[in-house]
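Entry — protein

Goal — fold tokens:
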Amino acid sequence: MFRGAAHDIALLVAAQGGTAVHNAALYRTCRRMVESLHAGLESRAVIEQAKGILHAELGVSPAEAFRLLSRYSQNTNQRVRKISARLVQGRIAAADFRPPADPGQA
């Protein structure tokens, strides 16, 4: 058991150690948040590019372009970000996003 000055020193060391552990945990949390925000910005940029491609090639509004991306995402069970990247890279054609023609209108 610590007594006197040794006790006081032990308390100071414990407090400093606790502060260091707390700061390290805060740093890790902030680091994860920053990485998540960066990933979100990158995803948003590629999705916006894909919307622009659909807008230009299919003549749809940006809102409709996003609906087409979302529908394709649901039909193929892939994330919108991944589909958008494939469209931007030219691995999917814009025509693949056109909804099927309604047979009643032919």
Remarks:
- Residues 4 and 10 are 10 Å apart (CA to CA).
